[in-house]
Amino acid sequence: MTTIASGTDTLTRDALTVLQPGFTGTTAPDWLLRRLGEGLASVGLFGRNIASPDQLAALTAQLRAERDDVLVAIDEEGGDVTRLEVRTGSSFPGNHALGAVDDVVLTRDVAFELGRRLAACGVNLNWAPSADVNSNPDNPVIGVRSFGADTDLVARHTAAYVTGLQAAGVAACTKHFPGHGDTAVDSHHALPRIDADLSVLDARELAPFRAAIAAGTRAVMSAHILVPALDPELPATLSRRILTGLLREELGYDGLIVTDGMEMQAIAAVYGIERGSVLAIAAGADAICVGGGLADDDTVRLLRDALVSAVRTGELPEERLADAAARVRALAQWTAAARAASSGSAESGAAGDSEGQREVGLVAARRALTVTYAEAYVPITEAPYVAALTPVANIAVGEETPWGVAAELTRLLPGTETGSFTGEDAGTVALSVAGARRIVAVVRDEHRHPWMATALDALLAARPDTIVVEMGVPQAPPRGALHIATHGAASVCGRAAAEVIVGEQRDQRE
Questions:
Q1: CB within 8 Å of 375: residues ≥ 6 apart
Q2: Helix (H), strand (E) at residue 73
Q3: Rounded-to-integer distance, Cα 165 and Cα 19, Å
Q4: Does residue 80 carry a catalytic annotation?
Q5: Does 260 qualify as catalytic in the annotation?
Q6: Nearest CA to 123 among 88, 82, 160?
Q7: pTM for this one?
């Protein structure tokens, strides 16, 4: 491992060690490599950093040439939130689809295969899974990222996901503690508030995190949410009562605590990222995630200096910063050992089931479908018109990841045409553009968007043979000649739906 740059004192090294910054580009910039030499121990990757598996492997090798125990983190949930396949859509269905199948062995297998692919590219920390119970169907940021609205289901699948991911040598980071499911506000934009009482929080929100801890999750990510029953003043990320009192002392968690992105407005707009980072470490967090929006050396320097200054003024105990840095280094040691162990087991068993593992995402997506026929359905044999009723994507998902069924229907039925529609007149406009073609209407969370329901009303009134594909949380009643709920918008979910539309029926139990 590269020797830490001489002249860098322990305090400064510790301040750098607790940061998880991002950067721009598909190769590591000079400033990042220099910071790794000075003590930076983690790097966060986003879609902008990834062009292909080979490129990603070269990038992580570049980072490890500077520091061989670096934690390389990524936000790869599968499903709607993918960074590995940000431009094509994920080969794995997300949590909601896995919850719909409710087969914990399948969830473990999906997480293992996803982890195997991450590890092959040199990634060793995944900011996943989401352990949030989606108890509020109007939640704008969790939705299909959750295994579901049933606490027990979420708990058992969270544990299975952690087990599968870590068996592949990739540390799981279970999120968003103490639970982001009962919110109607996206913390990327403002500070959400959960007003549930302690008994509800204990029975609902905390159960999946208990399961994750019991399964050995190596990291937990805090949520930027205000939970007055736990702390009436500070959001969870900045709350000692929640991070130290609840997570560490009551739940007995001893792994790494990572913050959600500090540039998110729930923190940045109220406290600023420098003040917020100091408060988070003081509260019990061990690693500061920053870099989704702020991804430069100035950000690293500002946060490093803020932490050093806070120690020197007595605001942040030096022992707390040193403990946080030690936990980061401990996780780095675990990932190195896990990588060696998993690579050895992969070599010994590679010939046996690699093909089946590669197909596990498609198998899961097919099994996750809920198909409702309103009448005797005749599969489409001629190229249809796909009308995508497109909501604004939340920041976690992003706008560059494609979704829908058009690409897969085009593959199966060449000549398929498609368009994206939004607003109160979306249905009328789609009808005029589609002409005589059979219409496949694709929606995402119809229940949350009145304009989308109105558009479907118009389509179905004029064309009762319209097929409806719901790729969000299927809360609205099924309608259309054929209604398919995919429980997520990953590309593999689109493929599974397209197979049903054209009559390529598969045994969903395979």
A1: 481
A2: strand 71-74
A3: 23
A4: no
A5: yes
A6: 82
A7: 0.92
What's the pLDDT tens digit per position in 179-193? 988 776 666 667 888
Give the pLDDT band of residue 349 (cuts 50, 70, 90).
Answer: very low
User: What's the rounded mean pLDDT across residues 208-229?
Assistant: 97
Judged by average pLDDT, the poorest of 121-130, 368-377, 378-387 is 368-377
Tell me, what's the pLDDT at 63? 98
The Cα-based distances of 501 to 110, 367, 460, 495 in angstroms read: 25, 15, 17, 10
pLDDT confidence of residue 375: 75
Of 96, 157, 188, 449, catalytic: 188
Return the half-sphere exposure (C-beta side, CA atoms, 13 A cut-off) of residue 102: 9
Note the pLDDT of residue 507. 41
Number of neighbouring beta carbons within 10 Å of residue 79: 29
Q: Are 315 and 286 in contact (CB under 8 A)?
A: no
List C-alpha distances in Å: 44 to 260, 291, 292, 368: 12, 7, 8, 31
What are the strands of the beta sheet with 417-421, ordered from one edge?
Answer: 370-373, 482-485, 467-470, 439-443, 385-389, 417-421
Instruction: Tell the residue number behind the tokens 């510790």, with chain if given.
Output: 14
How many Cβ atoms sit within 10 Å of the Cβ of residue 191? 17
Residues 284-324 pLDDT 10s:
999 999 988 889 999 999 999 999 999 999 999 999 999 99
pLDDT, position 2: 36
CB neighbours of 369 closer than 8 A, spacing ≥ 6?
484, 485, 486, 487, 496, 497, 500, 508
H helix runs in 180-264, sequence order? 198-200, 206-214, 240
Q: Please pick, among 260, 286, 445, 487, the residue that the annotation labels catalytic.
A: 260
Distances (CA, A) of 400 to 221, 355, 394: 25, 29, 11
Indicate if the pLDDT at residue 465 is higher than 70.
yes
Distance from the Cα of residue 282 to its chain's centroid: 26
pLDDT computed for residue 377 by the predictor: 85
Please write the tens of the pLDDT for every residue from 96-129: 999 999 999 999 999 999 999 999 999 999 999 9
Q: b/e string for 221-240 if b means 16 or more Cβ within 10 A?
A: bbbbbbbeebbeebbbbbbb
Residue 37 tokens read as 């030499």
Closest by CA position to 276, among listed 191, 217, 154 = 191
DSSP letter, residue 35? H
The CA-based angle 161-40-249, given to 5 degrees, is 50
How would you list the strands of the sheet with 125-126, edge to edge? 42-45, 71-74, 125-126, 171-177, 219-222, 256-258
Is the pLDDT reported for residue 502 higher than 60? yes
